[in-house]
Write a structure and sequence with these properties.
The chain is mostly helical. It is built from 13 helices and three strands, in the order αβββαααααααααααα. A hairpin with a 5-residue loop joins strand 2 and strand 3. Helix 3 crosses helix 4 and helix 5 packs across helix 7.
């Protein structure tokens, strides 16, 4: 009995809440838009009601995908971040606009659409170029996302104005990959973007300055696993190349030299010490430097680290 009394009390309270304050009617209807409306006088009682009913059940992957109500995630790798906003979609909205304002309304919608299309065309070309570079160089998707975000920032700040889109995109990929700890050499990115290293270097410094980006110093050791793998070098040679770079840093032999030239020289020296027959030309083509650069750096490493006797012994075997 007490339990029945509580149920009756709950129902009476709910009926009291759902009573129309205007006409006193209890004929309340919930619309598809989750609004509570009095069927007698049309008064809207609640227009922010949360639908608590369960959604359709899903058993397969396709049904679960269809069941999702949040839509695709916002991403910088799509024009307009994958979300497009239009002024007055459909002509049915014009019924709420006075005739004197309709011409202004149409004009605003037309120019809004033109600006969006122009911006999307520029973004689409830049994103395609960016994804091509990232894909060929084997960089993670996080690099594309961050570079796309920075490119949108560059568009808003007129950093792109008067510059080649390819140069701006390549510069952002170079900077983001470098700051994310997955650097690529300037020659690799310049080749994929069909630019000269001089143009890429000039543009990336300009972009970093205009967008106030921090440039993380590159560690030559980050390049050793990738290039040694391409050259088919053993694990012992990779370890020796790392030791050579580390010792050179302690002896202050790396100042004023590019990371790719340091890596190429260290790999060639390590291959000799470990008895592997890898030519200077093969290393130069793989890393993207000249044979002259390798010979000069190789000799500087031998003299600076005092490896003359060890190299002679290795070459005499």
């Amino acid at each position: 009995m007490p339990e029945n009394d509580e149920n009756q009390e709950d129902r009476s309270q709910e009926d009291h809440v759902l009573q129309c304050p205007e006409c006193g009617s209890t004929r309340i209807r919930e619309t598809r838009e989750a609004e509570l409306i009095c069927q007698e006088c049309g008064t809207v009682l609640d227009d922010e009601r949360v639908q608590e009913s369960a959604g359709p059940r899903a058993f397969t992957a396709e049904e679960r995908e269809r069941k999702e109500r949040t839509g695709a995630p916002i991403t910088y790798t799509e024009p307009s971040r994958g979300v497009r906003t239009e002024i007055g979609r459909g002509y049915g909205n014009m019924s709420q606009v006075s005739p004197s304002k309709r011409s202004q309304y149409y004009r605003m919608r037309k120019w809004h659409r033109r600006l969006d299309e122009s911006r999307d065309r520029r973004m689409k070309f830049a994103l395609e170029e960016m994804e091509s570079i990232v894909d060929v160089l084997g960089l993670p998707e996080s690099v594309t996302e961050e570079a796309a975000r920075l490119y949108e920032k560059a568009l808003e700040g007129d950093v792109v104005k008067g510059r080649k889109i390819e140069a701006i995109v390549a510069s952002l990929v170079y900077l983001v990959a470098r700051n994310h700890g997955v650097p690529r050499t300037m020659s690799e990115i310049a080749d994929e973007a069909d630019l000269s290293e001089r143009e890429l270097g000039k543009t990336y410094r300009y972009v970093a300055r205009e967008l106030d980006l921090r440039i993380v110093p590159v560690n030559p050791e980050d390049f050793i696993p990738r290039f040694s793998s391409r050259l088919g070098m053993s694990g012992e040679s990779q370890g020796r190349a790392r030791d050579i770079v580390s010792s050179s840093r302690e002896q202050d032999l790396l100042a004023g030299r590019s990371p790719d030239s340091i890596v190429a020289s260290a790999l060639y020296l390590a291959s000799i010490l470990e008895g592997e027959d890898i030519s200077q030309k093969k290393i130069a083509d793989t890393v993207g430097v000249t044979e002259v650069t390798i010979r000069k750096g190789y000799q500087n490493l031998i003299d600076g680290l005092g490896l003359e006797e060890e190299v002679e012994d290795a070459q005499s075997r």
